[in-house]
Amino acid sequence: xxxxxxxxxxxxxxxxxxxxxxxxxxxxxxxxxxxxxxxxxxxxxxxxxxxxxxxxxxxxxxxxxxxxxxxxxxxxxxxxxxxxxxxxxxxxxxxxxxxxxxxxxxxxxxxxxxxxxxxxxxxxxxxxxxxxxxxxxxxxxxxx
Length: 144
Ligand code: CMP
Known about the structure:
This protein is 39% helix and 18% strand. It has helices spanning 11-15, 19-29, 43-49, 59-66, 81-89, 102-106, 121-131, and strands at residues 3-9, 32-39, 71-78, 115-117. The two termini are 23 Å apart. The model has no long low-confidence stretch (mean pLDDT 97). Bound molecules: adenosine-3',5'-cyclic-monophosphate. ATP binds at residues 10, 58, 86, 92, 103, 113.
């Protein structure tokens, strides 16, 4: 039960082999994985995901980075999981991220900050439906 949030391990996380370590942190927290897939992100799909940053000077670099290799897109569920996941992930700039957070422990620079998490109820809803079809999200019911 609880709130759902969208989390994406970016290509640097996949390439460095820290997918398992990152997933463990969400599991350790108590969140329930309801969706997970590795995929090569089409450029347009990535541009749409980051459309609110379209006018920012770093937009093209950001899209190139996130499309540079496979990502792991996930949906995690739990009490206040949007805010809680952002706390697990840490500050956007890894230099400022507190040790103990994912970015604080695993990342060094803004251009390779390892992971994304939805920042509000609205963006979580939008991002979950942008990355997942309904039937890709588990209901956690038993199938015989
Ligand atoms: P994310 O949480 O995925 O949301 C927006 C992303 O934009 C952010 O993580 C960073 O990867 C990137 N970003 C934000 N600010 C900057 C910046 N000043 N320079 C480069 N990339 C940035």
